[in-house]
Write the structure tokens for this entry.
Amino acid sequence: MEHTGLLDIHHLCVRYPCGKEILRDVSLHMHEGEIVCVIGESGCGKSTLLNAVLRLPRRVRISAGEVIYRGHNLLSLTEREMRSVRGTGLGVVFQEPGASLDPIRKIRVQFYEAMRAHERISRKASAEKAEEILGRMEFKDPRRVMESCPAQLSGGMNQRVATALAMVLKPDILLADEPTSALDVTVQAQIINELMRLRDEFGTCIVMITHDMGVVAKMADKVAVMYAGRVVEYGYRESVLRAPSHPYTRALMEAIPRLDGTFPKGIPGQMTETFPARGCAFAPRCPHTRKECISKEMQQISLHAEHWTLCREGEKT
Ligand SMILES: Nc1ncnc2c1ncn2[C@@H]1O[C@H](COP(=O)(O)OP(=O)(O)O)[C@@H](O)[C@H]1O
Ligand SMILES: [Mg+2]
């Protein structure tokens, strides 16, 4: 098994306590300074993947696999060791900003406590850093934001505060779950610029979950397409966007809303809630389904350097 990246996810399988299988055999390798966008319909397991890597919430059952970060399997660390990895090793912006923020504590205090947990820093120095970073997140009056509690701010403001809070610790890897979904386009563009600047200045690896193909086109180096708990296609952005191989990726591209908000073509049918024991979960919705799609287990088919797909259709191109 190769352990070569900054973060190597090997054959990760996740179930919820009810027994429901959510992730099946997910393998991804993240490198320093790389931005990987994870895309796929709602419910395909994107947030579960991020939570499993961070081992949050603890009730998620990881039934198989490894998550190797700097040579350590995160799945075998103690909770105490894991706490020291979260923050400066793996920073996170949760899909619900409420999950990263305490609703009734001042933002100034939350910045101080987050920084304090990882370095010796005075209240004054932490406030200066916080104000500086909030200023870059399109807040007109960062000082007022610092003296507010999240409960007094809008969802979009909290999303930006949570992103700033994760960024200020300069993590090796930033895991961000749809961090710009509640923002209007101009603010979104600024946040994306700040994330890319973080990568350029500090070599931060960013794993960005998004359903916005504009975000993918703007910032991704690589794209991972997920469907029903699996990564079905992976590769460099140019390669995946220009020559999508998996029928699901193609359907996803065709489903991109036009500028006027209309969908040229939705993806017919719905994602299955439970996975087939064998074969391709997309088969019931796929225009190219053949007998072996249902009877045979899927395997990675390599297309070009670091571009692979799980669909046999890919062999033909
Ligand atoms: N706590 C939970 N218990 C059981 N199933 C869950 C739980 N949280 C999420 N799920 C299920 O896991 C699947 C993947 O969810 P999620 O990771 O949130 O998808 P995404 O982020 O791609 O929208 C969904 O079918 C969802 O209903
Ligand atoms: Mg999600």
User: Anything to note?
Assistant: The chain has a mean pLDDT of 91. Residues 244-317 form one domain. The chain is about 35% helix and 20% strand. Residues 185-202 form the longest helix (18 residues).
